[in-house]
Amino acid sequence: MKFGEIKKSGFVKEHYNYWNEILYDYLALPLVWVSIKLRLKPNIITLIGLFIRLISLYFYIVFLPFLAIFFFVLGYILDAVDGIVARVTNKCSRFGALFDYHVDFVTRRIFYGALTIGIFLKYNNPFILILGLVFVIFLLVREVLYMGAEKRYKNETNKRIAMLKGKFDLISLSLKRIIELNEIFFPFIVLFPFLVIEIYYFFNILLELVRFAYIMLISYSAQNQS
């Protein structure tokens, strides 16, 4: 099977963001081809990706930046490979989808903790622990609120999101691109001086506040229409 055929049958555009598409086009698809040739099952690929991500978390904690980034990016790519292989080989399953989702969800949250601990141990500055804790709390609160709003006002929430994107199309698209790029850039902050890392944590806290306000606006609007 050629790369073009793999991309056509296994690449679901709405699953990925703009920056991920660039990454997947050049890195994920060759790994998909190899996985298909080796007849690896999607869930096995997910397990391999989990193992590789755990290795990256260890290297973040002991602060070996290049090894940490290498294994993180590899695990990140494999997170896409398993889904594409499942679609190409017609081996999609509810269990596989849930397994992949929870592995990705949990390891990403643990990553923020491992990253913060590694930076703290490297620079021996407790302030970074406070910033990391505040960021993770804001992140989790925002996610819980979003899931609650989506569950309670699913149809109306989707309408409100579409309406806000329509009214503020350029702003919405710009914010979306910033969030997407930020998620990819986060693992690389260990390569920068401590002052840059502090500023970056402040930026992410502010970004979570903006996203929190956006969700509250949608929830309030949906509640008034329900």
Concise overview:
85% of the residues lie in helices and 0% in strands. By secondary structure, it is mainly α. The model has no long low-confidence stretch (mean pLDDT 80).
State the secondary-structure class: mainly alpha
Contiguous uncertain segments of 5+ residues: none
Strand composition percent: under 5%
End-to-end Cα distance: 49 Å
The count of β-strands is 0
Report the radius of gyration as a whole number of Å: 19 Å
Mind summarizing the main beta sheet? none
Shape: globular
Mean pLDDT: 80
Question: How helix-rich are the residues, as a percent range?
Answer: over 70%
Task: Give the helix tally.
Answer: 9
Describe this structure in words.
The protein is an all-alpha fold. It folds into 2 domains: 1-123, no CATH class; 125-226. Helices cover 85% and strands 0% of the residues. It has helices spanning 3-10, 18-37, 42-61, 65-88, 94-123, 127-152, 154-167, 169-185, 194-225. Helix 6 (127-152) packs parallel to helix 9 (194-225). The mean pLDDT is 80.
What does the secondary structure layout of this molecule look like, with pairings?
Layout: H1 3-10, H2 18-37, H3 42-61, H4 65-88, H5 94-123, H6 127-152, H7 154-167, H8 169-185, H9 194-225
Quick tags:
85% helix; mainly alpha; 0% strand; single chain; 226 residues
